[in-house]
C-alpha cells in the first residue's frame, strides 16, 4: 500500500466544522436513542434487542458499500445524501408515532449513518495534508466522543420532557441543519481517477498489514469502549453505587477519550509519537483499564473507566491517521468504510465475549479475558523488540 498526500494545505476551520458536526450527529443519534428506547416506549426485551440490532446491522452491511460509492462519485454528495436521509428517517417517527414506523425510522437512520460516517472520515483526510492527519482525526474523534457522552444524557432529558418523538424531532432538525451547513461549507472534492480494481486486488489490499493492524486496533478499542459503557454500570451497582454515580463513571470514560484524542493527534503530527507506538501504548492502557475494572469498589470502576477512555482515545485518531497514510487517495472511502465495518464488529463482539465469559464464570473473568486479548499484540511486540536488541549485541 502506498501513501499519497491528501491535500496541499490545511483546510480552513470553517470547512472542517460541518464534518465534525456530522461525526457528532452519528454518535449522538446512535447512543441517544439506544439509551432511551427502553424507557417505556419499547417494553419487550426482544423488540428492544431487535431495534438495537437493526441499526447496527445496517451499518455493518452498508458502510463498505457507501465507502466505495464515495470513491466513485465523490465523498461530498454521499455525505450530503446521508445527512438528508438521516433527517428524513428521523422525521418518519417524529411525524407519526407508531411501532411500525419506529422500526422503519431506526433502519433508515442506520442506513443513512452508513453513508455519511465513512464519507466524513474520507473528507477529513482529503481536506488535510498527511502531516496534519493526526490533528484532524483527533478533532473529529473529539466531537464524536462528545456525541457519545451527550447522547444518553441529553436524549434522556428530551424523552423525559416530550417522549421519544421529541428526540426524533431534534435528530431530524440536527440532520437537516448539518446537511445545509455541509452543503454551504464543505468544498467539492472530485473523485480521483483510479485503475480498475478486481475482487482479488481488493482482498489483497484489505489483507495487507497496513490495513489489518490499525483496523484490528480500532476494533479492539471499540470493543473495550462498548464493554466499558455497558458493563461498568453493572460493576458499579455491585459496589453499591446508585444510578447517578454509575452514569458519572461512564461519563468519565467518554470524557477521557474526548480529552486524549486531540492531544494524541497533535503529538503524532509533531513527531513526538508514532502511530504504531501510540497504538500499542493505547492497547496496553485499555487492557490495564479492563484489569482495574476487576478491582472491588468505586476505585476499580473509576480507574477502569479512566484508563479505558484514555487508551481508546489514544488508539482512535492514530488508527485512522495510519489508514489514511497507507491508502491511495482515490480509495479512501472504501478503506474508511471497511475500517468502520471492523469497528462495528468490535462494537458487537466485545460485549458478546465478556457476557459469554461472565455467564460461565464471573464478570471479572470477562473483563480479564478481553484485557488479555488486547494485551497480546503489545506483548508480542515487546518480546520481538527485546529479542532484536539481544541479537544486535
General description of the model:
The protein is mainly α. Helix content is 82%, strand content 0%. The chain is built from twelve helices and no strands. It has helices at residues 13-34, 45-73, 75-95, 99-126, 133-185, 199-206, 209-238, 243-269, 275-292, 297-325, 332-360, 363-392. Helix 2 (45-73) packs antiparallel against helix 3, helix 7 runs antiparallel to helix 8 (243-269) and helix 7 runs parallel beside helix 11. The longest helix has 53 residues, at 133-185.
* Secondary structure: number of strands: 0
Q: Give the C-alpha Rg.
A: 20 Å
Q: Kindly, what is the distance between the CA atoms of the first and last residues, rounded to a whole number of angstroms?
A: 33 Å
- Spans with pLDDT under 50 lasting ≥5 residues? 1-8
- Taken in chain order, the helices and strands follow as HHHHHHHHHHHH
Percentage of residues in helical conformation: over 70%
Mean of the pLDDT scores?
A: 85
Structural class: mainly alpha
In DSSP terms, counting alpha (H) and pi (I) runs of 4 or more, how many helices?
12
Overall 3D geometry? globular
Q: TL;DR?
A:
With 393 residues, the protein is mainly α. It has helices at residues 13-34, 45-73, 75-95, 99-126, 133-185, 199-206, 209-238, 243-269, 275-292, 297-325, 332-360, 363-392.
What secondary-structure arrangement, pairings included, does this model have?
Layout lengths: L12 H22 L10 H29 L1 H21 L3 H28 L6 H53 L13 H8 L2 H30 L4 H27 L5 H18 L4 H29 L6 H29 L2 H30 L1
Helix pairs in contact: 1-4, 1-5, 2-3, 2-4, 2-11, 3-4, 3-5, 4-11, 5-8, 5-10, 7-8, 7-9, 7-10, 7-11, 7-12, 8-10, 9-10, 9-12, 11-12
Amino acid at each position: 500500500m502506498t501513501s499519497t498526500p491528501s491535500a496541499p494545505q490545511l483546510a480552513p476551520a470553517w470547512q472542517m466544522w460541518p464534518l465534525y458536526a456530522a461525526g457528532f450527529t452519528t454518535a449522538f443519534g446512535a447512543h441517544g436513542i439506544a439509551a432511551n428506547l427502553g424507557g417505556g416506549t419499547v417494553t419487550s426485551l426482544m423488540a428492544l434487542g431487535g431495534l438495537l440490532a437493526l441499526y447496527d446491522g445496517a451499518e455493518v452491511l452498508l458502510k463498505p458499500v457507501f465507502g466505495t460509492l464515495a470513491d466513485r462519485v465523490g465523498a461530498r454528495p454521499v455525505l450530503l445524501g446521508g445527512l438528508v436521509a438521516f433527517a428524513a428517517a428521523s422525521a418518519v417517527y417524529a411525524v407519526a408515532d407508531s411501532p411500525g414506523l419506529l422500526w422503519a425510522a431506526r433502519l433508515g437512520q442506520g442506513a443513512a449513518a452508513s453513508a455519511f460516517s465513512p464519507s466524513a472520515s474520507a473528507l477529513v483526510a482529503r481536506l488535510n495534508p498527511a502531516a496534519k492527519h493526526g490533528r484532524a482525526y483527533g478533532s473529529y474523534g473529539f466531537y464524536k466522543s462528545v456525541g457519545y457522552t451527550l447522547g444518553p444524557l441529553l436524549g434522556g432529558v428530551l424523552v423525559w420532557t416530550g417522549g421519544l418523538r421529541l428526540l426524533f424531532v431534534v435528530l431530524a432538525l440536527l440532520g437537516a441543519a448539518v446537511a445545509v451547513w455541509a452543503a454551504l461549507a464543505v468544498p467539492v472534492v472530485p473523485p480521483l481517477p483510479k485503475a480498475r480494481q478486481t475482487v482479488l486486488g481488493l482482498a489483497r489490499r484489505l489483507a495487507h498489514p497496513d490495513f489489518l493492524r490499525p483496523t484490528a486496533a480500532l476494533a479492539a478499542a471499540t470493543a473495550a469502549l462498548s464493554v466499558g459503557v455497558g458493563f461498568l454500570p453493572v460493576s458499579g451497582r455491585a459496589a453499591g453505587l446508585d444510578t447517578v454515580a454509575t452514569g458519572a463513571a461512564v461519563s468519565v470514560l467518554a470524557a477521557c477519550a474526548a480529552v486524549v484524542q486531540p492531544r494524541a493527534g497533535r503529538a503524532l503530527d509533531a513527531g513526538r509519537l508514532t502511530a504504531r507506538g501510540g497504538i500499542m501504548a493505547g492497547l496496553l492502557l485499555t487492557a490495564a483499564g479492563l484489569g482495574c475494572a476487576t478491582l472491588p469498589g468505586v476505585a476499580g470502576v473509576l480507574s477502569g473507566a479512566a484508563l479505558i477512555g484514555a487508551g481508546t482515545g489514544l488508539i482512535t485518531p492514530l488508527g485512522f491517521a495510519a489508514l489514511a497514510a497507507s491508502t491511495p487517495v482515490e480509495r479512501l472511502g472504501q478503506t474508511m468504510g471497511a475500517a468502520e465495518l471492523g469497528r462495528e464488529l468490535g462494537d458487537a463482539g466485545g460485549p458478546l465475549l465478556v457476557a459469554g465469559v461472565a455467564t460461565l464464570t464471573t464478570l471479572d473473568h470477562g473483563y480479564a479475558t478481553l484485557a488479555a486479548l488486547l494485551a497480546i499484540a503489545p506483548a508480542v511486540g515487546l518480546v520481538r523488540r527485546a529479542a532484536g536488541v539481544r541479537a544486535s549485541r
